[in-house]
Recover the amino acids of this structure.
């Protein structure tokens, strides 16, 4: 779990457990998923308690789109919107891999920049890649009909695999 292994945001300040199963079958994965839901509720409650009052967006004009009323109501808002759409954010030249925890596991983002507003390369690594790699081990000794509940128990999302 990336929230523990390489903690980001405020996860290191929150108290939660990473549910781990013991048998690896469909029912075990179901129990793990139910405990993940309980832990998620606890994380949300703790985060809400720790959330400071005040604005939550940056005041830096070129880091977010202006409000719609500003785009249509004054020239500065229109220019900011145009520049963000046409030029984009301009990160420094280099490359970065940034993992984050999603509902099904680690989602990884790889970005290569030449310093312009257009990335040289962008790739996203969805968590379902791990599931596909583990499918042979999960299906050994099972019937073909068992593939459906096995896929369901790992929450396989076919759209993530369609490259």
């Amino acid at each position: 779990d990336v929230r523990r292994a390489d903690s980001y945001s405020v996860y290191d300040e929150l108290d939660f457990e990473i549910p781990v199963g013991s048998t690896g079958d469909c029912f075990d994965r179901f129990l793990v998923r139910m405990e993940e839901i309980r832990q998620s509720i606890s994380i949300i409650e703790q985060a809400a308690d720790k959330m400071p009052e005040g604005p939550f967006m940056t005041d830096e004009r070129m880091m977010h789109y202006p409000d719609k009323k500003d785009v249509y109501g004054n020239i500065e808002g229109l220019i900011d919107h145009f520049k963000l759409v046409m030029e984009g954010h301009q990160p420094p030249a280099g490359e970065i891999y940034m993992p984050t925890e999603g509902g099904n596991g680690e989602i990884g983002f790889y970005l290569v920049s030449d310093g312009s507003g257009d990335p040289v390369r962008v790739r996203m690594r969805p968590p379902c890649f791990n599931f596909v790699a583990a499918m042979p081990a999960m299906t050994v000794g099972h019937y073909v009909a068992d593939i459906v509940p096995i896929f369901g128990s790992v929450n396989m999302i076919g759209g993530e695999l369609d490259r």
Summary: Helices lie at 2-5, 26-50, 68-73, 75-87, 128-139, 147-153, 158-161. The chain has four domains: 1-54, 57-89, 91-125, 128-162. The radius of gyration is 21 Å. Residues 91-125 form one domain.
